C-alpha cells in the first residue's frame, strides 16, 4: 500500500469518526421543548411555563432569577427516589418516575443509589447517644482488659518420645524414664 493511499485512508477514517461523533452528540441533546425558557415575569408567562412542565399553576415555582441560567425550569422538592411509592405502577420503575414528569435539576444526585432524603425512623439525638454509649462502653472494656489481664489456664505442651529428649540433643545413655500421660 502506498503512503498516499494510507494517508488518505486515515483522513477518511478521521473524517468519518468526527462525523459520527458529531451526529451522536447532536442527537443526544435535550429537545427544544424541554429546554428552559426565559424567566416568567407575568402571570400569563408563569401559567404557560407551568403547562409546559405539566404542573398546576399553584404548584409551579421557578428557580430564582439570579443569573445561574435556570430560566423557567420548575424548582422541585429535594426528595430522593426512596421516598416515592415502590408499589406504584411507574412508567420507569427503576427510576420511579412517569413519562412527561419534570425531572429535578439535580436528578442524578437523588437516585436510589445516592442521597436518601427520606426521614429517619430514629431521631438523630438518639442515634448519637447510642453511638457514643457503645463506643464509651467498648473503650471502658478495653481499659479494664489492659488493667486486669486474664489468661486461659494451660498445661505445658506435650511431645511424643519422652518429650523429644533425643531429638533435642539429649544423651541416649542418660535417657529419663518415659512419662505416661494416659493409661488405656
TrEMBL record:
Record keyword Mitochondrion present: yes
Keywords tagged on the record: Electron transport, Membrane, Mitochondrion, Mitochondrion inner membrane, Respiratory chain, Transit peptide, Transmembrane, Transmembrane helix, Transport
GO biological process: mitochondrial electron transport, NADH to ubiquinone
Localization in the cell: Mitochondrion inner membrane
Alphabetized Pfam families for the sequence: NDUF_B8
InterPro entries: NDUFB8, Ndufb8_metazoa
Membrane topology per record: Single-pass membrane protein
Entry's transmembrane regions: none
Recorded GO CC terms: mitochondrial inner membrane; respiratory chain complex I
Main localization category: mitochondrion
Subunit record text: Complex I is composed of 45 different subunits.
Record-stated family: Belongs to the complex I NDUFB8 subunit family.
Role summary: Accessory subunit of the mitochondrial membrane respiratory chain NADH dehydrogenase (Complex I), that is believed not to be involved in catalysis. Complex I functions in the transfer of electrons from NADH to the respiratory chain. The immediate electron acceptor for the enzyme is believed to be ubiquinone.
Designated name of the protein: NADH dehydrogenase [ubiquinone] 1 beta subcomplex subunit 8, mitochondrial
Organism listed in the record: Poecilia mexicana
The organism's taxonomic lineage, starting at the top: Eukaryota, Metazoa, Chordata, Craniata, Vertebrata
Amino acid at each position: 500500500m502506498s503512503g498516499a493511499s494510507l494517508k488518505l485512508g486515515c483522513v477518511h477514517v478521521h473524517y468519518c469518526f468526527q462525523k459520527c461523533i458529531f451526529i451522536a452528540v447532536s442527537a443526544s441533546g435535550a429537545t427544544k421543548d424541554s429546554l428552559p425558557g426565559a424567566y416568567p415575569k407575568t402571570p400569563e408567562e408563569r401559567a404557560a411555563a407551568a403547562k409546559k412542565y405539566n404542573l398546576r399553576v399553584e404548584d409551579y415555582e421557578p428557580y430564582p432569577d439570579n443569573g445561574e441560567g435556570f430560566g423557567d425550569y420548575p424548582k422541585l422538592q429535594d426528595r430522593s427516589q426512596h421516598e416515592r411509592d415502590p408499589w406504584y405502577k411507574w412508567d420507569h420503575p427503576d427510576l420511579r418516575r412517569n413519562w412527561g414528569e419534570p425531572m429535578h435539576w439535580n436528578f442524578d444526585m437523588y437516585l436510589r443509589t445516592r442521597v436518601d432524603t427520606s426521614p429517619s425512623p430514629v431521631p438523630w439525638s438518639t442515634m448519637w447517644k447510642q453511638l457514643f454509649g457503645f463506643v464509651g462502653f467498648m473503650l471502658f472494656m478495653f481499659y479494664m482488659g489492659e488493667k486486669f489481664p486474664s489468661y486461659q489456664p494451660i498445661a505445658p505442651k506435650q511431645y511424643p518420645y519422652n518429650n523429644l529428649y533425643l531429638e533435642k540433643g539429649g544423651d541416649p545413655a542418660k535417657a529419663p524414664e518415659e512419662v505416661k500421660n494416659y493409661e488405656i
